[in-house]
Design goal:
It contains eight helices and nine strands. The protein has about 260 residues and is α/β, with parallel strands linked by helices. It has a single domain, classed as Ribokinase (UDP-N-acetylmuramoyl-L-alanine:D-glutamate ligase, 3-Layer(aba) Sandwich), CATH 3.40.1190. The protein has a nine-stranded mixed sheet with strand order 3-2-1-4-5-6-7-8-9, sandwiched between helices. Helix 1 packs across helix 7 and helix 7 packs across helix 8.
């Protein structure tokens, strides 16, 4: 049977991030993707022009339509935007006892537009992150969640442990915002640290990188991989997607989601 993976996130009319990136990734991973859309964005490679949040009633109906018929083997979240959406999504995950939840705590776009309201951060940390199997913050998001300033590798390790202590969920601190020739992601699962080191690729075509990585990890979890291996395989996929990326629009270009499809 083909594994099923659900994305709970927002659209990107420019096609590079959000639901659109997730579904492209699911196809590349050869899993069946479903989508609970929580908001619509008028967005391109340069900016996010506007955000339209969908009614909670409709979001719940999307969940119910998927889970009453198709079900899911894993789920990932992206841009959720507001406290009441985060609270509702958390309850729907609990209602259907959804497993293999990957939370990508999308807060700020690459074009510096806020994608998570400031008053929603507490709900993200105290509700959704506490039922996650994995949280995948970048360094700026890690600083917000951990209330720590990150200046180096040791800070990232300490922050990952702090987030685990706060949430009880495994944490992958992504190193893409750090300096140096290599990007180092750090996983802490409550007992062990794992390090994922990759050569930094010089490109502006990185729109939707976080969405794509989290969608890929969720896909591998749905296919039965253990967390450390799922991350390792997802890292290989994202590296290829960046290496084969291309300009699309006038701003941050697109990853090549289909580079690995034979």
């Amino acid at each position: 049977m083909v594994s099923r993976v659900m994305t709970v996130a927002s659209t990107d009319s420019g096609g590079g991030a959000g639901i659109m990136a997730d579904l492209k990734t699911f196809t590349a991973m050869k899993v069946f993707g479903t989508a609970v859309i929580v908001s619509l964005t008028a967005q391109n490679s340069v900016t996010v022009k506007s955000i339209y949040e969908l009614p909670i009633k409709f979001i719940n109906e999307e969940f119910d339509a998927i889970m009453e018929d198709i079900g899911t083997d894993a789920a990932k979240t992206g841009m959720l935007y507001s406290e009441h959406v985060i609270s509702d999504v958390t309850e729907k995950f609990k209602q259907y006892d959804i497993k293999n939840i990957v939370v990508d705590p999308v807060m700020i776009s690459k074009t510096n537009v806020r994608l998570l309201k400031e008053d929603a951060v507490d709900a993200m940390v105290s509700k959704l992150m506490k039922i996650a199997d994995l949280i995948t913050p970048n360094i700026p998001e890690t600083e917000v969640i951990s209330s720590m300033k990150i200046n180096n590798y040791d800070d990232s390790r300490q922050a990952a442990k702090r987030i685990y202590e706060i949430t009880g969920s495994s944490v992958l601190v992504k190193g893409g915002h750090a300096n140096g020739n290599f990007s180092i992601d750090i996983l802490y699962d409550g007992s062990e640290y794992y390090e994922y080191k990759s050569k930094r690729i010089s490109t502006k075509n990185t729109h939707g990188t976080g969405d794509t990585l989290s969608a890929s990890i969720a896909s591998y979890l749905a296919n039965g991989k253990k967390l450390p291996e799922a991350i390792e395989l997802a890292k290989q996929y994202i590296e290829g997607a960046i290496e084969n990326s291309f300009p699309m629009g006038k701003g941050y270009g697109s990853l090549s989601h289909f580079w690995a499809i034979k």
